[in-house]
Amino acid sequence: MSRIGLHSIAEATLQLLASGKSQQEVARELAGYLIDERRTRELEALTRNIEVLRYKRDGVLEAEASSAHTLTDEIKQQITQQLDAKRVILDETYDQDIVGGVRVRALDKQLDLSVESKLNQLKHNVKVA
Prior knowledge:
The chain is α+β, with helices and mostly antiparallel strands. The chain is built from 5 helices and 4 strands. Strand 3 and strand 4 (109-112) form a beta hairpin.
């Protein structure tokens, strides 16, 4: 019997979610399938496939945002515009090493709006006399 590809599993997962099944229900079914088929090691790759498909189909991008402070709605809106997505779902984390600003990672996109990054850019662009 041929093995079902990760892309096909990702598509089926998104179809189940679109049909109205709860995330918990879909997650249980998906976990059961991966366990039964002894494919649990592929979970990370499958998750990435789902994220890519969701972004391509619906413009929804899941991202990690690290900052020293809670992000305002205005900053979240700016991040969405910078990442060129219809909607960004942010997983916010506190990072004490970031003095100010925010660092965002999503799929193959990285956005570094931290104070440190801006200072480094300035230092790089300023020529010493």
